[in-house]
UniProtKB/TrEMBL annotation:
<keyword id="KW-0410">Iron transport</keyword>
<keyword id="KW-1003">Cell membrane</keyword>
<dbReference type="Pfam" id="PF08402">
    <property type="entry name" value="TOBE_2"/>
</dbReference>
<keyword id="KW-0406">Ion transport</keyword>
<dbReference type="InterPro" id="IPR015853">
    <property type="entry name" value="ABC_transpr_FbpC"/>
</dbReference>
<keyword id="KW-0408">Iron</keyword>
<dbReference type="GO" id="GO:0043190">
    <property type="term" value="C:ATP-binding cassette (ABC) transporter complex"/>
</dbReference>
<dbReference type="GO" id="GO:0005524">
    <property type="term" value="F:ATP binding"/>
</dbReference>
<dbReference type="InterPro" id="IPR050093">
    <property type="entry name" value="ABC_SmlMolc_Importer"/>
</dbReference>
<keyword id="KW-0547">Nucleotide-binding</keyword>
<dbReference type="InterPro" id="IPR008995">
    <property type="entry name" value="Mo/tungstate-bd_C_term_dom"/>
</dbReference>
<dbReference type="GO" id="GO:0015697">
    <property type="term" value="P:quaternary ammonium group transport"/>
</dbReference>
<keyword id="KW-0472">Membrane</keyword>
<dbReference type="InterPro" id="IPR013611">
    <property type="entry name" value="Transp-assoc_OB_typ2"/>
</dbReference>
<dbReference type="InterPro" id="IPR017871">
    <property type="entry name" value="ABC_transporter-like_CS"/>
</dbReference>
<dbReference type="InterPro" id="IPR003439">
    <property type="entry name" value="ABC_transporter-like_ATP-bd"/>
</dbReference>
<dbReference type="GO" id="GO:0015408">
    <property type="term" value="F:ABC-type ferric iron transporter activity"/>
</dbReference>
Length: 340
């Protein structure tokens, strides 16, 4: 995607979106409802004209503001949130739907192979309404993969499934795509899904791509305050620049890792993730528990510092402290990220 803009009527929905996927890579557009994720997928698939920029696929320019390849020529497969299966066809009929050009034997072989890949080998003759949501989505995936697409697009593919199945299926789908070297782009507003599936994630807000990066970098090195807030949990503490690249805040003094230009005396906000703040009984620094959420192996504590500012801390759940109790804490971080 090279500086792609899309709009509806007078409204601009995507502004100069640029990102790329290498062959076999899985990307994800992540962002709140209405930010333009689906519109980006529709533009790539060829259902929405673009107003500026270019879309490249395997060396072809498939869309510009003046020339667009029709969807059926792009060689792009799609998987939708609502599965969109054909109810009057069996599982095998659905998967083989786009393979009409192949000889019958070859089509049969390919359908059987794909059903094996998605774990539905015994269901070829079932009608899709008799399948669970997770199984229906596997049929949709097999159908999209059948014509060997150059790119697979997945629009919130797991959002109709319960949380546990969603996590398992995202991992399974990643394994299937990786084993076949399929290049894919997913859209979701669920960061856990994005983390489980994607190599590269783009965080979007109001039609703009704020950062295109690995999950690790989005979490530890967010380029933008919105990205820092949207991805993972955390708290911001006021800080003062005390020397070039040196910040002082209520929990200590650290070097600043961000690209933010830090002039001495400048007031900034430091991002602290829950895993940056450790519970340590031997620490002289104390904070009061104001909220706690049980997460199984851990508690997520919200802790008030003496100033009243709060930070989050992930603590192994055998450290069960009461609300109001003061506990020792220590910062486990060498560099901090700061925002103006
Ligand atoms: N056909 C349309 N005509 C006019 N406006 C539209 C049309 N489709 C989408 N929009 C608007 O474009 C913006 C982006 O919509 P889009 O569906 O791409 O967002 P999204 O990030 O996929 O949201 P969600 O997560 O809720 O699906 C929204 O403000 C939406 O109202």
């Amino acid at each position: 995607m090279d500086q792609v803009s899309v709009g509806y009527g007078a409204k601009s929905v995507l502004a100069q979106l640029s990102f790329g996927l290498a062959k076999g890579e899985i990307g994800c557009l992540l962002g709140p409802s209405g930010c333009g994720k689906t519109t980006a997928l529709r533009a790539i698939a060829g259902f929405e004209p673009i107003r500026a920029g270019r879309i490249h696929l395997n060396g072809d320019i498939i869309a510009t503001a003046t020339a667009q390849w029709p969807p059926q020529q792009r060689g792009i497969g799609m998987v939708f949130q609502d599965y969109a299966l054909f109810p009057h066809l069996t599982v095998a009929g659905n998967v083989g739907f786009g393979l009409g050009a192949l000889p019958r034997q070859e089509r049969r072989r390919r359908v059987a192979e794909l059903l094996e890949v998605v774990g539905l080998a015994g269901h070829a003759d079932d009608y899709t309404h008799a399948l669970s949501g997770g199984q229906q989505q596997r049929v949709a995936l097999a159908r999209a993969l059948a014509p060997s697409p150059r790119l697979l697009l997945l629009d919130e593919p797991f959002s109709n499934l319960d949380v546990e199945l969603r996590e398992r299926l995202s991992q399974e789908v990643r394994d299937i795509l990786k084993s076949r070297g399929i290049t894919a782009l997913l859209v979701t507003h669920d960061q856990h899904e994005a983390f489980a599936l994607a190599d590269k994630i783009g965080v979007m807000a109001e039609g703009r791509l704020l950062q295109w990066d690995s999950a690790y970098a989005l979490y530890h090195e967010p380029a933008d305050r919105f990205v820092a807030d949207f991805v993972g949990e955390g708290a911001f503490l006021p800080a003062t620049v005390v020397a070039p690249g040196e910040l002082e805040f209520e929990l200590g003094r650290r070097t600043c890792q961000s690209t933010l230009v830090c002039e001495p005396g400048q007031k900034v906000q430091v991002l602290l993730r829950p895993d940056d703040v450790l519970h340590d009984d031997s620490s002289q620094r104390h904070a009061r528990v104001v909220k706690k959420a049980f997460r199984g192996a851990q508690f997520l504590y919200t802790l008030a510092l003496p100033s009243g500012a709060t930070v989050l801390s992930l603590v192994p759940s055998h450290h069960d402290h009461a609300i109001g109790e003061a506990i020792g804490i220590r910062l486990e971080i060498d560099h901090v990220i700061a925002f103006a």
